[in-house]
Amino acid sequence: MQPRPNNGFQPVFCTIVPPHVLDKLSQADDPRLADPARRTLEADGARRHHRRVTALARTTGAARTSAPVPTKPHRTLHDCRHGTDLPGVKVRDEGDEPTRDASVNRAYAGLGATFDLLLTEYGRSSIDGKGLPLIGSVHYDEKYNNAFFDGEQMVFGDGDGEIFLDFTVAIDVIAHELAHGLTQYTANLAYEGQSGALNESVSDVFGSLVKQHSLGQSADQGDWLIGAGLLAPRVSGVALRSMKAPGTAYDDDVLGKDPQPASMDDYVETDEDNGGVHINSGIPNRAFYLLATALGGNAWERAGRIWFDVLTGGELAQDASFTDFAKLTVSAAQHRFGEGDEAEAVLKAWSEVGVPTR
Questions:
Q1: Residues 6+ apart with CB under 8 A from 162
Q2: Residues 6+ away with beta carbon under 8 Å from 54
Q3: Which ranges of the chain does DSSP label H, i.e. alpha helix?
Q4: Comparing C-alpha atoms, which of 273, 124, 302 is closest to residue 197?
Q5: Which residues are catalytic?
Q6: Can you give the pTM of this predicted structure?
Q7: Dihedral angle computed from the Cα positions of residues 333, 336, 338 and 342, in that order, rounded to the nearest 10 degrees
Q8: Residues 100, 14: Cα–Cα separation, whole Å
Q9: 317-347: buried (b, 16+ CB within 10 Å) or exposed (e) per residue?
Q10: Which residues, including other chains, have CB under 8 Å from residue 355's CB and lie 6 or more apart?
């Protein structure tokens, strides 16, 4: 089934911190914790509505000029100065020297690292394949506990300093959000149920790949954490999610316990968070981790290539289930690598998390 970028475009507003985490935090007795979470939920709700309204006037397949595809990124960073008007004041353009603002410099580097992985490893120029400029805005709102991709640009909050730190500190968070743009321009996975969980998982996969690629880490050396360094010292946890061991990223008196399942045995049926897109993504996340570590070497070379081939291959339906996606990864492995270790490792990874492939 071919992607339907024009007729079936799904307007998506994607945030790195799931609504269920912010909702739990908003119920804290301490107003220093609850108030920023409530404001973040309100701001996200308004942005989500705005995204639905404005996105319907555009399509992801809009015509572009026939100019040569760029082989270098075009990054522009803005400072919202704790306001909510986007994109804010431009503070750094492509090729400019680093500024005195660490948030600007980290965002600039993260956007570049994502562009670099896509181009050097997969031959894709930016998230749309045509050199789309990468825009980022830092210091969004007051104590804003999130980062998001709104279909056009990246936006980073500073965090409240109590639970979350500056959202530019984790390069995989930057790459995760940009990867939602990659999905938008390719398979355009519907943001609900299992297809929505796949949408989130694909972003976690490419977030981890960008981090490992930028650090020169093999699959065995990677921490497989999403958002390591993002939680403040008072929080009992190491990250927002763990691809290696879903459900173990945090266990905190305020945030609660990481609810992600590691297999279909514990799949969560819920009406919240678009059918648990941030929760059940732990299942395909672990499948990818199992595949990458079984194959060894650099995760972006074989495991990542298989996932990229499925995402861009034109056969992934917008409403794909875990099983649909898994079957396509088997086919992609066989097509690219033959009936060898790669295909067998894909079958075993999905089997371990309880997703059928036959």
A1: 32, 33, 36, 232, 234
A2: 11
A3: 19-26, 31-55, 102-122, 171-184, 193-215, 273-276, 282-295, 303-312, 322-337, 341-352
A4: 273
A5: 177, 278
A6: 0.92
A7: -40
A8: 29
A9: bbbbebebbbbbbbbbbeeebeeeebbebbb
A10: 264, 283, 284, 287, 322, 323, 326
Q: Is the peptide bond before 284 cis (omega within 30 degrees of 0)?
A: no
Name the token pair of 248. Answer: 């173990």
Q: What token pair was written down for 287?
A: 């499948």
d(CA 219, CA 295): 9
Tokens at 136, concatenated: 């980022």
Q: CB–CB of 231/249 below 8 Å?
A: no
CA distances, 11 to each of 4, 57, 149, 204, 321 (Å)? 13, 10, 11, 19, 19
Model confidence at 55, pLDDT cuts 50, 70, 90, reads very low
Instruction: Name the 3-class secondary structure at 156.
Output: strand
User: Rounded distance, CA 343 to CA 178, Å?
Assistant: 28
Span between the terminal Cα atoms of the chain, in Å = 19
Query: The sheet that has 14-15: what strands, in order across it?
Result: 14-15, 147-149, 154-156, 134-138, 75-79, 89-93
In the three-class reduction of DSSP (H, G, I as helix; E, B as strand; rest coil), residue 250 is classed as strand
- State the average pLDDT over residues 136-149: 96
pLDDT in tens, 182-204: 999 999 999 999 999 999 999 99
pLDDT at 56 over 60: no
Give CA–CA dist 289/5, Å, rounded: 29
Number of C-beta neighbours around residue 314 at 10 A:
11
Structure-token pair, residue 183: 């999905």
Q: Can you give 38-103 as a three-state secondary structure string? A: HHHHHHHHHHHHHHHHHHCCCCCCCCCCCCCCCCCCCEEEEECCCCCCCCCEEEEECCCCCCCCHH
Region of 320 on the Ramachandran plot (φ > 0 left; ψ -120 to 50 alpha; else beta): beta
